[in-house]
Specification:
With about 350 residues, the protein is an alpha/beta fold. It has 15 helices and 10 strands. A 6-stranded mixed beta sheet has the order 1-2-10-7-8-9, sandwiched between helices. The protein has a 4-stranded parallel beta sheet with strand order 5-4-3-6, sandwiched between helices.
């Protein structure tokens, strides 16, 4: 079977690419939109759809923007890329750098990156440096290195990242036949909510959608600088992908919120973990904790929003295997018994 058409080729007319832009690809995009009757019943929303971005090549939505950013870096003659990351950006940058045959350097906040993401970056061959500080410290260092010519910065401050990520909004419109009435999305560094809004605005302008959705973003309660209105020096949350105290795309997130008529709010770690468990055990979808923030947000916000006759999409940003440590905290039973049929039947409750 042939690989899927590259994201760059598929949306070339809607991306800042040229004939000289390498058609780099690992098969990103075209992720499933899965309906959730259980969430519909629980929230009273007419239609709830889950955009499962964990099906991208490195297991997160970051691949959409990274393929464009790295391809443009190649077009401009770069021999190395670099980034700061809480994990998913590192994994994606390292994979696409490996595919492109260029060097990759990653700066991580020590002790604050989920194991699955750290392993990915290392296995893909990136030079990984852990600094004793926050993500914001790591990003400041990465920006300085880029300014000194040490590589092309591929964090979401790179405009090509947002351009690539907006394609998820195009796919949602294509799959539904229009934009949804509302989109619920986790907010960390805030590039993704910025990108979705740009995508929906463009989709409406060229006739792919007849409307623009309201965007509802959710930050973890312990890492909610946009909601609080000030930088959080030491953000804390179990959802490591959104453990960010000074989002690079803060202004873009505010614009998406205000222009769409939506909101940005908080959810607690307990609410995130409850949604995380229910997605896995009731939907069969294993997302990382940050992904569950938007579902927790829908459950929290639905009673006060008029969504009974509406179509809602929740963006699940990354795969659950990104964060095995959190998965191992979920209570589950495994019984160790002899290889005997009667014993096994009793253990299984048959």
């Amino acid at each position: 079977m042939l690989a899927r058409v590259s994201l760059i080729d598929r949306y070339a007319a809607r991306l800042p690419v040229t004939a000289r832009t390498p058609r780099l690809t690992l098969g990103e995009g075209s992720t499933p939109l899965v309906r959730s009757p259980r969430l519909e019943a629980e929230t009273g929303v007419r239609e709830v759809w889950l955009k499962v971005e964990g099906m991208n090549p490195t297991g997160s939505f970051k691949d959409r923007g990274m393929v464009v950013a790295v391809a443009k870096a190649l077009e401009e003659g770069a021999s190395s890329v670099l980034c700061a990351s809480t994990g998913n950006t590192a994994a994606s940058a390292a994979a696409y750098a490996a595919r492109a045959g260029v060097r990759c350097a990653v700066i991580l906040p020590a002790g604050n990156v989920a194991l699955g993401k750290l392993i990915q970056a290392m296995v893909f061959g990136a030079r990984v440096v852990a600094v004793r500080g926050s993500f914001d410290d790591a990003l400041a260092l990465a920006r300085r290195l880029a300014d000194e010519g040490e590589g092309t910065l591929v964090n979401s401050v790179n405009p090509y990242r947002i351009e690539g990520q907006k394609t998820a909004a195009f796919e949602v419109c294509e799959d539904l036949g229009d934009a949804p009435d509302a989109l619920f999305i986790p907010v960390g560094n805030a590039g993704n909510i910025t990108a979705y809004w740009r995508g929906f605005v463009e989709a409406a302008s060229w006739g792919l959608a007849g409307r623009r959705p309201r965007l509802y973003g959710f930050q973890a309660e312990g890492a909610a600088p946009i909601v609080r209105g000030h930088v959080i020096e030491k953000p804390e949350t179990v959802a490591t992908a959104i453990r960010i105290g000074n989002p690079a795309s803060w202004k873009g997130a505010l614009a998406a919120r205000d222009e769409s008529g939506g909101a940005i709010d908080t959810v607690t770690d307990d609410e995130i973990l409850a949604a995380y468990r229910s997605l896995a055990q009731e939907e069969g979808i294993f997302g990382e904790p940050a992904s569950a923030a938007c579902v927790a947000g829908l459950l929290k916000a639905a009673p006060r929003l008029d969504l009974a006759d509406r179509t809602v999409v929740c963006v699940l940003t990354g795969h659950g295997l990104k964060d095995p440590d959190t998965a191992l905290t979920i209570e589950a039973e495994m019984t160790d018994v002899p290889a005997d049929l009667d014993t096994v039947e009793r253990a299984m409750g048959l």
